[in-house]
Amino acid sequence: MIGQILATLLPVFLIAGSGAAYGRFRTPDIRSLNTLNMELFVPLLVFAVLADRQAPLAEYAWLASAAALVVLGSGLVLWPVVKWLGLDSKVFLPPMMFNNSGNMGVPLLVLAFGPEALPAAVVVFIVEMLLHFSVGLYMLDPRTSLWRMLRMPIVAASLAGLLVNVGGVPLPGWLLEAMHMLGGVCIPLMLFALGVRLLEIDFSDWRTGLLGAVLCPLSGLVIALPLMWLLPLNPLQTAALLVFAALPPAVLNYLVAEQYKLAPHKVASLVLIGNLGSLIVMPLTLAAAFAWIQPPP
Fold it and tell me: Is the residue at 51 inside a domain?
């Protein structure tokens, strides 16, 4: 189990480290790179996953609801903590709420529980992404209009993918393959850009990063654990919810902070230390999830 977890997490740190190594000797235009990623590669990935995976969404309605409660509930639980500590809620709360359900959650769930876990992994990924680019953007800028959010490429791609999925619209294989190839660029590109930005981190804020590494999974689990008993989830869905709740902050938080110019250096620190902390948190969480699926006789 530990070997599987390391095989999933270590590539994340290797790619980010490559970006840091490159950025030390060159000065790449990271802002333009991030804009390209947010407006093209990420939307293509979201649409391709929704349209091609054909996750049976109707069978996962309770899991989707639970995932939404974990995301939103994490913010509500941590709001008084943020105010008490005098932290900037626009900088600290989004990474605590919007976790790494894409480039870590999906492969981790499939590696841990097999191909049958893929629909659950896709469903929680969809929920997290849609909330990130609706509620998350409103948190950063309350003046963001609904129409503006709907016109954003990532939101439009999510809605279009859902329509294709629910409507059962068949798409040509060559089109989906092209979208998968282009969309697949976004995850390593996000990690690479994060590595470049890490060179500018002020490590005097390491305490905030460490605090986030603890509060991110803790707040998610505080919400998820009661839902495991209250909602009619099957064992696999329950295990998926448990892993989802304990995931570290998403790399995408850094990209959004970069676009909104909201202390991207601090957000990068929260993301990096949070993902490092997952080397401790995720083995414990997976052990509990395995015990839930296969209880002792």
Answer: no
